[in-house]
Design a protein that fits this description.
- The chain is mainly alpha-helical and 258 residues long.
- The chain has one domain.
- It is 88% helix and 0% strand.
Length: 258
């Protein structure tokens, strides 16, 4: 019994120590954002966003296919197949677009950031910068965080747009739903402020969360191949759980404030 309580106590202390280090890292990184150069930021937006674009677009297309197919067979039961566009647009813009994009973003860009920073730590490149008087947080981490912050909402918007086109193709071209009703119902039901803006807020928050978690695990990784591997795995797991938890909290808050 005593051994079990000791193990639980060590685990709790370790978790709180990790949370404290993450909080200190976040404050340090946010305080260094002002010194980030424009060219490295643009390079990171290209690296993070452009290289994630293909998987985001393809995933959005197939999610749209599934939504169009499943949504039609549910709505036709109640004689409401004309509302297919509304259902697809609201599902993607409010929920699936930001969430699925964030999960894919964590698996693609998040792991790449963690591995890159982790190997820089293992290769003592960050220590060499500090020896030369260069702040690695401002020079290396800040541009990558800003790149993730900017790229994530753009990727989420692309995911939603491609998903809507995929649902239109299935619902209109393959099944035969009226195209005019598809677009007009969507236009009249989707509100810019209460729907599109809420999805944009979610995508921004997810980008910040994934960026911070990925950079933290890379920066604090043990300087060994095994340490970098564990840090990369932790990035995917913790980022995914954080995205789902934040999604629930923000959805509850947005629905109560409508």
């Amino acid at each position: 019994m005593r051994a079990m309580l000791t193990a639980v106590g060590r685990l709790v202390v370790s978790i709180f120590r990790r949370i404290g280090r993450f909080g200190l890292f976040t404050c340090l990184l946010l305080s260094r954002l002002g010194g980030a150069k424009l060219v490295p930021v643009l390079q990171q937006i290209h690296f993070i966003g452009n290289y994630s674009l293909l998987i985001i677009a393809v995933s959005g297309l197939f999610v749209g296919f599934v939504l169009g197919l499943q949504g039609y067979y549910v709505l036709v039961t109640y004689g409401s197949e004309q509302a297919l566009g509304t259902m697809v647009a609201l599902s993607l813009v409010r929920e699936l677009g930001p969430v699925v994009t964030a999960l894919l973003f964590a698996g693609r860009a998040g792991t790449a950031l963690t591995a890159e920073i982790g190997f820089m730590r293992a290769g003592e490149q960050l220590a060499a910068m500090e020896m030369m008087g260069v702040d690695p947080v401002r020079r290396v981490l800040a541009p990558r965080f800003i790149g993730a912050f900017i790229a994530m909402p753009i990727l989420a918007a692309i995911f939603s747009a491609v998903g809507i086109m995929g649902a239109w193709f299935v619902g209109v071209e393959m099944i035969g739903t009226d195209s005019g009703a598809f677009w007009s119902q969507m236009q009249s039901s989707v509100d810019v402020w209460s729907d599109v803006l809420n999805g944009g807020i979610k995508s921004v928050v997810f980008g910040v969360a994934v960026g911070l978690i990925a950079l933290f695990h890379g920066y604090c990784a043990r300087p060994t191949p095994d340490g970098v591997s564990r840090a990369t795995t932790s990035t995917v797991v913790i980022s995914s759980l954080m995205v789902l938890g934040l999604d629930f909290m923000m959805t509850a808050w947005m629905f109560t404030t409508v």
